[in-house]
Amino acid sequence: MDKEEHVRVRFAPSPTGYFHVGGARTALYNWLFARQSGGKFILRIEDTDTERSDPTWTAGILQALSWLNINIDEGPYFQSERKDLYLKAAEKLFLSGNAYACDCNREDVLKRTEGTGHVGYDNYCRDRGLAPADGRVLRFLTPDSGITVVNDIVRGEVEFANTSIDDFVLVKSNGDPLFVLAVVVDDQDMGITHIIRAEEHLPTTPKAILLWHALSDKKVPTFAHLPVLVNEKRQKLSKRRDKVAVEEYKEMGILPEAMVNYLTILGWSPKDGSEIFEQKKALAEFSLKEVNHSPAFFDEKRLLYFNGQYIRALSDQDFTQRLLPYLEESYPKISRDDILEKLEPLVSLVKERAATLREGVDLLDFLFKEPFAPDEEDLQKVVINSDFSRQLLEEVLKRFLALTPADSRNSAVNATGKTESEEAITTGEKVSGHGLFVAEVLKDILTESGALFDLKLAKAQAPIRVATLGKKTGLPLFESLEVLGFPEVIKRLRAAIEKTSDNK
Ligand code: GLU
User: Fold this and answer.
1) Residues linked to residue 152 through DSSP beta bridges, in sequence order
2) Is the alpha carbon torsion for 351, 352, 358, 361 positive or negative?
3) Tell me: the pLDDT tens digits for 38-75?
4) Annotated catalytic, 456?
């Protein structure tokens, strides 16, 4: 890169839908390049297509960029507010003879070109000397010979014969400027030095270059067209087929730094071949010249793997802070303090197991979800249709109840259906307060109870787990039971036992 040149790049999304991971990768590469060179990263919202553009999508783009920590130096500029500038440029092109008015309609053109093998516009109005007016488009007068070279950092020099480019429209017959004109005017006006964007824009680039020269003597920016993102079938990622919205990944609890890391390697990787790395490495080593031009596979599974690694590298405290908003969103009626109290003893166990923050929420649902109901399939399989489950559950229940302090151990079920010991618990004299309802003790109890039925601990855990935590898989059982607490565990064991009776 020319050290003298003051780098100015722009990210120029069209707000016509959810913010696409491909857009995020483009934004990121622009941003990395700007940050590396001490240049400016500009955001330009290309909302000239009024029918498809919507401020909601713009808000989504801004939120997603901020979530990914891609900070903006200038903008957002809105093309919808800059129409005068484009029309002024159109007038300049007309007056300088680089553009002409045209009143042809499609049918006329097709009739004239039928059988000639000519594709596209046939330049009919080039010499008719029409004045611009309502109902007439403005066309660019493309040179009849020569080639236009796109200087692309990723692809090298790409040549286009000017004869392959027809006299394209700059302003529609209703007076609206078209995208190709707006982009060139803005890139000139904003002093853009490098245009880093999706590969799909490569075919329009020669048009932009011709237009650029017709409008100004300024140096044409350097281009970098980034490789397309594809799915596992090597198809271009599409909104209809694939999960492409950045918002969705945020929603499922991908950490922004994992997303950024993963996006960084979609088209570029450091020389040492590492894949998971801190952003400072990308800032130090990223190079547009090293960007690969073959399609990059966006592999959701790989992203999940990255995310799991990032989650595990967080401190418990940081992980808690990341998880908290997801829990609060899922359980709006539970206070933050209550959530934190239950989360705290389990947080490191969740952190080790969750690939996403949403998975973290799922792992904890046995603590917060109201009303509690075990997974029906697991209940059938592991509790109801099992030879030993009912007896084991009863045995465990009996032993858990016997864990109460000696003075209330002989309690019977009283009129409220609760044992006196449970009553004592709910009035504050907690079993756990006596150091009895704790993971190690519960584990011993289950080991002993299982042995009565010739069951190894792992096998004995399954029905207890489904009865109390609701699923066959999840967090370690005993730590979870400790946090769930004596009264709730007893209640759930009893409910499960009752279910087995229903089916007897
Ligand atoms: N607005 C275009 C898009 O969203 C980008 C155009 C450009 O970067 O030049 O695909």
Assistant:
1) 156, 223
2) negative
3) 999 999 999 988 888 899 999 999 999 999 999 999 99
4) no
Which among 20, 82, 197, 209 is the best mutation to test ligand 1's pocket, defined by most ligand atoms within 8 Å of the CB? 197
Any idea what DSSP says for residue 485?
-
Contact yes or no for 61/13 (Cβ under 8 A): yes
- The finding on whether 136 has its CB within 6 A of some atom of ligand 1 is no
Whether the full predicted model's pTM is greater than 0.85, yes or no, is yes
**Is 197 touching ligand 1 by the criterion CB < 6 Å?**
yes
Q: Tell whether ligand 1 has an atom less than 6 A from the beta carbon of residue 12.
A: yes
Atom 3, ligand 1: residue with shortest CA distance: 13
Cβ of 13 less than 6 Å from ligand 1: yes
**Ligand 1 atom nearest to 10, measured from its CA:** 8
14 CA → ligand 1 middle, Å: 6
The DSSP line for 297-323 is: E--HHHHHHHHHHHHHHS-HHHHHHHH
Residue nearest atom 10 in ligand 1 by C-alpha distance: 13
HEC secondary structure over 190-216 = CCCCEEEEEHHHHHHHHHHHHHHHHHC
Q: How far is the CA of 227 from the centre of ligand 1 (A)?
A: 14
55 CA distance to ligand 1 middle (Å): 17
Q: Which among 174, 176, 178 has a CA at the least distance from the CA of 208?
A: 178
The owner of tokens 């032993």 is 399
Three-state secondary-structure class, residue 177: strand
Q: How far is the CA of 197 from the centre of ligand 1 (A)?
A: 7
In this prediction, residue 408 has a pLDDT band, given cuts at 50, 70 and 90, of: very low
DSSP 231-242: -TTSPBP-TTTS
Instruction: State the Cα–Cα distance between residues 357 and 324, nearest whole angstrom.
Output: 9
Instruction: List Cβ neighbours of 256 (8 Å cut-off, separation of 6 or more).
Output: 67, 68, 69, 250
Active-site annotation holder among 88, 172, 218, 239 = 239
What whole-number percentage of the chain has pLDDT above 70?
92
Angle at 463 between CA 429 and CA 391, to 5 degrees: 80
DSSP structural state of residue 156: E
- Nearest residue to 297 (alpha-carbon basis) of 278, 269, 274: 269
d(CA 397, CA 492): 10
Alpha carbon distance 378, 385 (integer Å): 10
- Evaluate: CB of 58 within 6 angstroms of ligand 1: no
